[in-house]
Amino acid sequence: MTPIQIEPFKIYKTHNPKLELIKKIGLGIFFVGLFFLLVSLTGQKDVGGGLLLFLSFGLSIIGALIYCIPAFKESPAGIKNNRIFFNGFTSKGIIAFIAGIIITSFYVFLYWYPGLLVNWIRLVDPLSYTLRGVKADRWFLYGTFYTLAVLVMGTKMIIKYRHNTYQIVRTLSVMFFQLGFAYLIPALLIMFNKPEHYFSYFWPLKYQYLFPHDVTTLTANSGALGYFMVMWGAAMTFIAVPVLSYFFGKRWYCSWVCGCGGLAETAGDPFRHLSDKSLKAWKIERISIHSVLVFIVVTTALLWVNSATDGKVLGGLSQSFSSAYGFLIGAIFSGIVGVGFYPIMGSRVWCRFGCPLAAILGLFQRFKSKFRITTNGGQCISCGNCSTYCEMGIDVRAYAQRKQNIIRSSCVGCGICAAVCPRGVLRLENGPEKGRYNIVLDDILSKS
Amino acid sequence: MQNLVIIGNGISGVTTARHVRKLSNMNIAIISAETEYFFSRTALMYVYMGHMRFKEIKPYEDWFWSKNNINLVKATVNSIDTDNKSVILDDGTKISYDKLVVATGSQTNKFGWPGQDLPGVQGLYSWQDLELLEENSKNISHAVIVGGGLIGIEFAEMLHSRNIHVTFLVREEFYWDNILPKEDAKLISRHILEHGFDLQFGVQLKEIVAGDNGRVKAVKTDRDEIIECQLVGLTPGVHPNIDLVKKSKIETGRGILVNDFLETNIPDVYAAGDCVEFKEREQFRFEQLWYTGRMHGEALAQTICGKRTKYERGVWFNSAKFLDIEYQTYGFVAAAPRDGETSFWWEHKSGKKAVKFVYKSDDHSIIGMNTYGMRYRHKLFEKWIIEKRTVEFILEHLAQANFDPEFFEKHEDEIIEEFNKQNPGANLKLKSKRGLRNIFSKELV
Questions:
Q1: Are residues A276 and A345 in the same domain?
Q2: Contact residues, A window 147-186, toward B, CB-based 8 Å cutoff
Q3: What is the tens place of the pLDDT at every residue in A119-174?
Q4: Is residue B312 assigned to a domain?
Q5: CB within 8 Å: A1 and B202
Q6: What pTM did the predictor assign?
């Protein structure tokens, strides 16, 4: 038998030292950038200026991007989760703990010791003057870090999932909302001397937006724009949440719009498999997330009662509730645990165990929605990729191997379970409520 | 209370146990020498590649078994004494049964090649094989895989993920073309080459050569070519693992002989999964797939619990993933066209997506479909095959069966266009598309 030659369109090498070198160079430049970032933290108070900004932020970004690019040439597009459980950074090695401590420390400094960050804040002054017309503060610094993380790691995400249009579109969406709605628009508002406002956040995630203080301040001081901001927030909470969740599930917000979700889906992607899949974790999740929801509802109600009665009935009680919520939930839970523990507990700890908005969206998704993940007949081989890579810790396989559709309040609809499934078993769908829990085949067939 | 003893904790044994538990409260013990807990054999490759660990490929948490009162026994069975209805473990322990299920799976084929038992030569089937592979693949740079089946391509992909260069020797003209039609096999072969594997067609293994250290050093092909390597993966298929049963009174052929009820010649002794041979069948006497193993278990549980149920294999289906290309098959697609059959092939310009439809030449009713790089609804394809729908009907309604994620490019229009081009006179039009309408309708369209 004479072998027949087949010409592939392109051939990738098993091992490509040139690409390894490019990645190392990228990583090197990234660390040089980080070095300058550290230097600037310890340096003179009047460092400022464009050069150091470029050397620190600029080199970090360029280095990170150079590191991502070779993925195109390493292998054909497809699911490539090789070595995730061997790499210490992505599998709770020492380096992961170090990264966790660094991020956690940053949050501690940011909330309680901003003086330690003052040189970084001065470093982004030029950027702040350009975008906002005023000098930087710690929240601008935080927003800049946050947005850069979403943009750079979003680019990496898009390269990784370049064969998957759903992932590309979804990632572009979170990058767009972070850059536009959570960074540039608030900056422009300040530039024009208006109150800083984030249109992509609303109560109860951004709980202050329906607190009496914010509502009265905005409507009293900012005229029509202030009224619009309050109405927009209320409309999102009370109209958009039920309506959009009914049609699309909670994913319309959690994995397409939300900034917390945006960071989890980009910078958090390398840690998504660290979420706990046990039944026990699910039990804790249900108690914890709904407790936070009750906490914020009670706090908001108390504040309004207090405001309506001019503090005569409740005295300082509502204010104590509000401060406690801000400290325990706003700072410690959503910030320190939510992001600082990425390398240890996965990228969605806050979204899964704490976010009260996710709790509300989840209730709609669970009980009144068209969204479901459909299981394709008997094709499941119980391999476990879906469960492993579910950032919300849902044991997707438990449903798929029983041929059941997956309807869980916590599912953010990121679609990674469907992407990593090697047998094409899962599909995110918006469909009729009838037969949602399991597709009624006759319904499809009656149309054919 | 009755004792059910199951030998083997693979998908067949475990499915039998789970379904028996749903129907009955009899005592259940599953004996396995491989691992204490059930794992997904199809996922072994992902452990080696670092996508998952052993923990992740266990489909049930460890508490599941005691909660459902299923006893797990990690031990090797030495013999089966059907006269006294007991199995004897290798430490001499005797476990008596009222009903026995043998689900011992299969073993890697070896064809008597010189050097096939050398250190560094191995198959890939069990957890122990994976542990051995970790040892055998340490610090090596080149491996040879012999045999181009589904395990072969997985084995190659695994080694590739560790930067080990793979030479893949395939006896056939194209990869897996004893199962896949030519066009299909060519598409997959091209994809394997794209990944940088040294895929060689029409080559057979002649001999495995040892080095001075007694380990494998090279292979010699039937063209007397020498290929240096430090590891040889043997993947020329599997055969039933029946060494244990052969010593008993249970009747065997190449596998454990069973009827369509999965009953052996001995009352109260059953067999399921890879290890069985269906003695009443003319063809398809062996079923060595994950899915069939599961379905054997489901049917057998009914019989064990007193509702004697025939195992029906139903409309055939299978699926696999060749590196980045997903493959699904439904019905029957023969490697070479049979008399009275016509086939239709559409391939996307990327060379990574395709469909193959095989239908009867006279009435155009569908016989089988293969899909590559695109996902389709299992239940709908199955229904169309049962209803003997024509290829024209299926093509016109193909969009309804599309199961690709949202926003993926749809190709049903192109597929129909191609069919019309290949079949002058056919003037098919796509009837309905999926899309936003589903969000607003009461029923799925």
A1: yes
A2: 163-166, 168-169
A3: 899 999 999 999 999 999 999 999 999 999 999 999 999 999 999 999 999 999 99
A4: no
A5: yes
A6: 0.94
